Amino acid sequence: MDNFYTESPLWHEKISGIHALLELVKIREEQSGDVLRSWKLNRIMSIHASTAIEGNRLTLGQVTDVINGIPVWGPQKDIKEVQNAWQAYNELPRLGCP
Length: 98
Known about the structure:
It contains three helices and no strands. α1 crosses α3.
């Protein structure tokens, strides 16, 4: 079978460059995932601490479950307080706050 292309030494160089860029994209995607997980954990811990100061009795695990939509046993007032805090934090960027 005849080749429908001609091989050039530059191909190997270009393919190598493409491969390096794909690896860089993969690394950046993994790092951004870590940043998002870290951001969410920090926000959960902040909500837990700030609502606990106000007398909320939910544990950090329960707060995490509430935010992730998992039902928990606890005072409905405390659960609603965590849901409201999460919603408020998520509205901040829309209001121009970092």
